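Hi F.,

I've been meaning to write this up properly since the lab meeting, where we talked about keeping a consistent format for the predictions we share between groups. The idea is simple: the sequence comes first, exactly as it goes in, then the structure tokens exactly as they come out, then a line or two of notes. No screenshots and no reformatting. I'm using this chain as the first example so we have something concrete to point to.
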Amino acid sequence: MKFASTRNPDLKLSFQDALFQGLAPDGGLFYPLETPDLRRVFESFNSRTSFQEIAAAMIENLLGSEIPEADAAKLAARAFPFSPELKTLNEKISVLELYHGPSSAFKDFGASFLASSMEYFLKGSDHKAVILTATSGDTGSAVARAFYEKENIDVVILYPSGRVSPLQEKQMTTLGKNIHALEVEGSFDDCQRMVKDSFTDRELDSINLSSANSINLGRLIPQSFYYIWAESRLRGKDTTFCVPSGNFGNLTAGLYAKSWGLNVDHFIAATNRNDVVPEYLMNAVYSPRPSVQTLSNAMDVGAPSNFERMQQLFSNDVEAMRRQIRGIMIDDEKTTETMAKMAEEYDYPVCPHTAVGIKAAMESSEKHLTVLSTAHPGKFTEVYKKAVGIDAELPESLIAVKDREKKSDFISNSSEDLKKKLFSMFG
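Output, unedited:
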């Protein structure tokens, strides 16, 4: 499989090259040039096929020219010592729990595969990489944990000051060593802009920057694996996925899986007040704007990067996109009401992002939907207590960092200041 830029289909790269470049030189995002028909592969999976076996098969079928079969199995085992879990909420709603990894968020799947893939390609070479990534919360903690102490790789994480939960901040600012946290005076959109500007700044070429955001294919491709795993367990039920959406990497990964032949009816993009994509699906006008702060902070994205990939996939045809995706906006009031309802009526604690997805599913007319549960509720203790009235139980991964000392550098939202910082760190 080869990959091209969304802004230049003639720019064709291998997976390895796209992995380390992160963002195309023209500012575009890499996307798969081929659309393989993998229906027979998907049909070979069943409810007894493990997630690691599915991941190995997908690596082999998508990237086999660069990662041989034997290495694909080893890479899958190394990247995924954890798996999704599928729970039945009621007759209408199933929940795909994606928070059983080391940082307790779905981003672990992409970040762990990205780190393991980069380590695989760097093994035995003197090449070094600097991972530059922006986060609205969960990406940073997942990337920090996935890349911690990886050889020949440093990580720089930009996060918006005061706009991530205290525990999310602790997860990305307490590791040290090769993990460097920059607290940005601004929003996630500022962080994302600064990262993009750095990738297109030729003066920074000497630092060998790469990305760990969902703009990086190494993050995006493995996110398709859990849709495939879920479908192997859902056969006989309608396969509509309801996806809490911010930067739209999660939904884009599902769309790719469907394009490869996965049996998916359609998708619901569930957003908070940052609803530029549902708005586009309604009126065919895409109007990115500054994000607004909500209780589901990891979805506070006003200019989602992966929308560019979605437009490429559907050839800028809004009608074609509407046939596969429906958008629903859920505000903070409905979010907290849903968190309380889940705890009281189902004894099922959920984070605010998962609550957005569940409420959107409740408002939908489908007979059956599968909601992607993106994070453990313990990552959002303040929001959970406000909504439910009690403290959320913390998983071991969060207990371990709760009392550690935060170490980060404060920086303005200027791309020029980031450039100076990178040169001071890496020369």
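Notes:
The domain at 84-106+218-394 is CATH 3.40.50.1100 (Rossmann fold).
Residues 223 and 250 are 6 Å apart (CA to CA).

If this format works for you, I'll send the rest the same way.

G.
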